[in-house]
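Quick one - inputs below.
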Amino acid sequence: MLTRVAEAIAAARAVVAVTGAGISAESGVPTFRGAGGLWKRFRPEQLATPEAFARDPDLVWEWYRWRRAMIAAARPNAGHEMLARLEARVPRFTLLTQNVDGLHRLAGSRNVLELHGNIWRSRCSAEPDRGFDDRSSRGQAEEAASDASPAAAPRCPSCGARLRPDVVWFGEPLDTRVLEAAMAAARDADLVLVIGTSAVVYPVAALPSIARAAGARVVEVNVEDTPLTSEADFVLRGPSAIVLPALERLL
Ligand code: BJW
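Output:
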């Protein structure tokens, strides 16, 4: 199976990788669903919806600061690194990620579309176009927060409204331009690698089917079955930090 997938990659002109939380699991970043997943311990409707933020922005920020601390300590793993190298080997390669952890770029991937945003950015809840990069030591968002209590939701330095993490919560639309670019890449692909996602969150979960309907072959890399498994042309069962480098050795 691994050899046939390697041959399909070698023959492809346009490859799309769709990644989810599972690719970062071996970097120590918890997934959302399944054993040890965040949604086993936390309720999405209390933390990852616009209503939750309106109700208790301090609680939401506490959760995101805790996750930022975990992600700050994480390094890209062999799976992220393989995809970064693959980009250089394939004529057209697009990485579509649901992950907000930024580990793909840290691994060296360049053509990355972050469909659910990035945990290191925040933006004004009143004026969404006003965004902040909080990664560089203490960003403006953190500065603003420290004026109040360290646990409080930070405020926009320009207008005083609350800042929010620049991620996509349930019930919110994905950035139209990013989603359209992702759909165009999916339609253009000869081969789609779907890696470490439970494939239950839409619209991203529909991208492999969109690609397949346009003629692409679909490869799933996951430690367990997902709703996508039955329509995948190839299924590589195992941890992505093991499976992806093994695949690369056959290229
Ligand atoms: C490994 C591994 C290893 C582990 N190696 N593998 C159509 C049908 C039904 C519902 C909807 C629909 N359209 C929209 C909806 C509603 C909703 C939705 O999809 N709900 C479903 C859950 C039912 N979608 C939305 O609300 C989206 N918005 C939207 O559609 O807007 C429409 C709209 C238009 C106009 C106006 C208004 C609205 C937004 C979705 C946002 C999702 N947000 C989150 C949080 C992001 C921020 C944050 O991180 O805090 O995104 S939820 C969470 O799930 C996160 C993830 O990106 C996302 C997907 O999870 P993922 O990555 O798949 O992780 P897991 O944990 O689920 O799976 C991990 C996998 O890895 C497992 O399979 C493991 O087996 C595997 N694994 N170790 C390989 N080592």
